[in-house]
Amino acid sequence: MPSNGSVSDAPITQFINCRILKEHTLQREDLWVRDGRILDPEKLFFDEQGYADRQLDCGGAILAPGFIDVQLNGGYGVDFSTPSEDPGAGVAFVAKKILEHGVTSFCPTLVTSPPSVYHKVLPEVKVQSGGVHGAGVLGVHLEGPFISLEKKGAHPEQFLRTFGGSGGVNPLLEVYGGLDNVSMVTLAPELAGSQSVVEELSQRGVTVSLGHSVANLSQAEEAVQQGASFITHLFNAMLPFHHRDPGIVGLLTSNRIPAGRSVFYGMIADGIHTNPAALRIAHRAHPAGLVLVTDAIMAMGLPPGRHTLGQQVIEIQGLHAYVAGNTLTSSPVPNQLTFDSRILNVFWGLGTTTLSGSIATMDMCVRHFQQASGCSVPEALEAASLHPAQLLGISHQKGSLEYGCDADLVLMDDQMVLEATYISGVEVWRK
Amino acid sequence: MKLIILEQYDQVSEWAAKYVRNKILLFNPGPERYFTLGLPTGGTPLGCYKKLIEFYKNGEVSFQYVKTFNMDEYVGLPRDHPESYHSFMWNNFFKYIDIRAENVHILDGNAADLPSECQAFEKKIQDAGGIELFVGGIGPDGHIAFNEPGSSLVSRTRVKTLAMDTIQANARFFDGDLSKVPTMALTVGVGTVMEAKEVMILITGGHKAFALYKAIEEGVNHMWTVSAFQQHPQTLFVCDEDATLELRVKTVKYFKGMMHVHNKLVDPLPGSLKKN
Asked: Which class is domain A65-297+359-392?
């Protein structure tokens, strides 16, 4: 169908011969894009008597909203928590690479670090739209340092903090240097003084997530009532489910969630961080809250070997990443990477089997989740797009193919293997 | 009248779609002469629209030089309401074919001045040179478009209050809630449709059988407005077996006996190839 409308001169693209994810199913419908947003073709037809300038044949493929990763620590040799001369460049490098995994928006994540790192890195990582240059930065996810000692996981013990007596977000402002460009904070609600922190962060529009914590269910519910809405990598770094005190896991079926609100929970569906049976239990208990995250670390995208995460050394074996054994080691930077060599670090470490982030990519997680849970393709796709958008309160704009939403898209086959990625209707990666 | 009797709904849909396709092709429309088509909404023509879309996709027919005039539209229902006739036509037909928006005419049930809107619609039909083929359905009360029992057989496009029968029949599209169904509509008149060169009425289902009987075996009567077409020179009634249940055996046998002749009307036209 021919040319354009009286409302705008911008060209209109019509994705044809595709199945789009809409209203929780795959529908055989065309998708219309103008000005980087999804267009209502019926309005275009009747109001503007307009039509498409060009048609893109999708060859029968699935067209879904681009993935949103709210927990990404780095990748391809870049560790967001390790200061370099140009943290912004590191984020941009990874942002470009993850387009290959269908991620169109993400939250660069900083693990527990000393204030100097936050003060250096945060001002350089700005919220920005995605495009050909890379996935959009929605804001930083600060995972720590206000977390539990017992559940620090791979976070460095020496930099953990408590809130102190003053109440409010002042301790956070001190440690982080500010909350600009911050979209999420993970904290342990059992730490004294957390209530006012959770409340104030929520009021400021920062998503509060519970994680790396030994909170019991009451403490967790209290935090949710104050505004917490996410659980950082469910099951990992928290007390295990117990039938007389389900702990944070109990939030999935808690009846003390305020009306109109929902608790979301991150799942690292790499087949390693969570046993598939546990994944299924969580999914069946609260399917609408499941948010797929990669929690990917610097080594994602790199070959097996030793690498640095924050202030620690980790070791890659296949799809597993562990806190490294006690050998003095230096990790040569692979030749194909050309970023600041000060990211190279040499440390003593203690051998453990503490999991240390994952190296699975988001599209791998989506496929694995669908396989392990037996859920439908639409459900698996929504866990990586709609749910994170709802969590961050941006579902009117991202994570969905409703009219008016940003045209951030992924094209894939029936096995959910990616063929192309689009941001604002422009192709930014093709297989 | 030609009474085309086919076994079931699907055959009716196919026959009717082929007839429309052939009429368009025979007319050979172009930028200087458009084929004007009157169109209905509702459950009955859905299958016919699906078939026409298929023919378009196969390259058998194009709607580039076709102008359409819908029969009716609810008053006061937002245009983008899923049950508006604008939505129906977009979702079931227009979005799949190559028709241009400026060639589509549907009454605007939200116009500030409804009588003017109706007059303007009549004028649009006139300006387009009249309607070549008007496709319609029949209500269980024998109405054509929203020309409810008692409507003048020479009526023109106007505002109508819907009969309780019609509201009940339409309730199924509004979650079964009678209070949600619009009570008024803009509709072409019986007279408007009578002015078309040719009229094709689709009738399927046993619940329409009595209306069909009243329309073709009894007299012309404003209580069964479809009966007006007994006085139109070129009318086709296309129906399934169930719709004939109230007709005389004699009527049914007579027209079934003509099927071998009537079926020629839907044969593929000689020389019709894939378009473009």
From this structure: alpha beta
